[in-house]
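Contributing new records

If you add data, match the layout below exactly. Sequence lines come first and carry their own label; structure lines follow with theirs. Keep one chain per record. Anything else will be rejected by the validation script.
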Amino acid sequence: MKDEQSVEQRLDTIERLLQGQKSVLTFEEGCAFTGLSKSYMYKLTHRNKIPFFKPHGKNIYFSREELEKWLLKNPVKTAEAVEQETTNYVARNRVRR
């Protein structure tokens, strides 16, 4: 039994690695890539909140590169970065008396 699980785990790993090489992802692959549920991905595509393609009006495809860009939108700054920006702003806009 352990050998069967080991083989299955190895095949899953190989499959994930191969999917990482594709530039165009199916709907299911896009869900797996982003880690989002199918229902949420359908909502995002329905509301045009995520970049996708429907070449024949039926199947949904994603560009891996565009999904990566979409996932990395709206970065959250660290507290240190915010503090540095505040310090820089105060230094530039110091009121002289």
